[in-house]
């Protein structure tokens, strides 16, 4: 595999806890690669650390430890370096209504990136081209409209156009269709796939929805309590998941066979990550006695697992799943 266009290497991000003292381990050792022209889905429950990891990859958070790499070069945190980096790696937020200034026209919203970077050459043509690539045609018809005059899908296309105008290499999309009607979601997902095919654009799509991952991703990374616990090609992860957490997430999809897996309790407090496998206090395999029968129950409760590699190979952080492989 060639050098990843965007990568996390042993990334950790900690925050001071608001209550009770201690430090919350929001991201607790993550390797993740995004290759050129690849769409990677980062999947997990709310609070698992996926948005913090995305913000760190964007340079909006500085890691407590580890590195973010752009084309193999560690990210520098000077103002000049970050400004250049953010041309190459652009963010698309989940709520277009919240990310668009209601007082700015569509033209101004899309042109904002060019103006921030002092790059206003051929501004009108570039705004029109970005809107057109985002599926708003003819683009001139949208120039003087305001966000409240657009549908939710049109607003999300304006946000995507604002990212495209800087010709990025990677888009980081945080729940890009979560706020849209079901009828519009497919259109936005199809747009992201078309941009990948036409422009070679890579994307990291942050989502809690494994169904979305199935429709758009080449590869999936499943995150739990600050760490990636399973990763691999989308077909493998979604048809033959090995980690009990991935199996539980998949079990609630409408087309999933069998009964949904109901996990016990809430994810643990990130200031008090449990010893052993971090999922063991909620694990249905351990609770059923299957892990003890396989001779790995005590390891599940007391032995931490290695941090997974971030590349294209399938990998899982689960004592029971690894024992089943042997």
Summarize the structure.
InterPro entries: AAA+_ATPase, ABC_transp_ATP-bind, ABC_transporter-like_ATP-bd, ABC_transporter-like_CS, Oligopep_ABC_C, P-loop_NTPase. The chain is an alpha/beta fold and 326 residues long. Helix content is 36%, strand content 20%.
Please give a structural write-up.
This protein is α/β, with parallel strands linked by helices and 326 residues long. It has one domain (6-325): Rossmann fold (3-Layer(aba) Sandwich), CATH 3.40.50.300. Helix content is 36%, strand content 20%. The chain is built from 14 helices and eleven strands. The protein has helices at 50-57, 79-88, 96-99, 106-116, 123-133, 152-164, 182-199, 210-216, 234-239, 244-251, 284-288, 290-293, 297-302, 319-325; strands at 6-16, 23-34, 39-43, 65-70, 73-74, 89-92, 170-174, 202-207, 219-224, 227-233, 315-316. The strands form two sheets. It has a seven-stranded mixed β-sheet, with helices on both faces. Strand 7 (170-174), helix 7 and strand 8 form a beta-alpha-beta unit.
């Amino acid at each position: 595999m060639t050098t990843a266009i965007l990568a996390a290497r042993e990334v950790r991000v900690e925050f001071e806890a608001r209550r009770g003292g201690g430090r919350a381990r929001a991201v607790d050792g993550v390797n993740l690669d995004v290759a050129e022209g690849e769409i990677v889905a980062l999947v997990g429950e709310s609070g698992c650390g996926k948005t913090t990891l995305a913000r760190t990859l964007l340079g909006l958070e500085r890691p407590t430890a580890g590195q973010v790499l752009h084309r193999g070069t560690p990210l520098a945190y000077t103002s000049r370096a970050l400004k250049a980096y953010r041309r190459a790696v652009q963010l698309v937020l989940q709520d277009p209504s919240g990310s668009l200034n209601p007082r700015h026209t569509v033209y101004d919203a899309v042109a904002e990136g060019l103006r921030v970077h002092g790059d206003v050459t051929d501004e009108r043509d570039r705004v029109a081209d970005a809107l057109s690539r985002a599926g708003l045609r003819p683009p001139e018809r949208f120039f003087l409209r305001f966000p409240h005059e657009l549908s939710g899908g049109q607003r999300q296309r304006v946000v995507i156009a604002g990212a495209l105008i800087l010709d990025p290499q990677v888009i980081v999309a945080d729940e890009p269709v979560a706020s849209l009607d079901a009828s519009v979601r497919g259109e936005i997902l199809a747009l992201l796939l078309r941009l990948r095919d036409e422009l070679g654009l890579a994307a990291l799509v942050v989502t809690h929805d494994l169904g979305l991952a199935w429709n758009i991703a080449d590869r999936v990374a499943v995150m739990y309590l600050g760490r990636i616990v399973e990763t691999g090609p989308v077909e493998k992860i979604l048809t033959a998941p090995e980690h009990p957490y991935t199996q539980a997430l998949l079990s609630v999809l409408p087309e999933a066979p069998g009964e949904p897996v109901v996990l016990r309790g809430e994810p643990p407090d990130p200031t008090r990550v449990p010893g052993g496998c971090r999922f063991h206090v909620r694990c249905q395999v351990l609770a059923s006695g299957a892990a003890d029968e396989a001779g790995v129950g005590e390891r599940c409760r007391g032995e931490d697992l290695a941090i997974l590699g971030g590349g294209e190979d399938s990998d899982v952080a689960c004592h029971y799943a690894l024992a089943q492989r042997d």
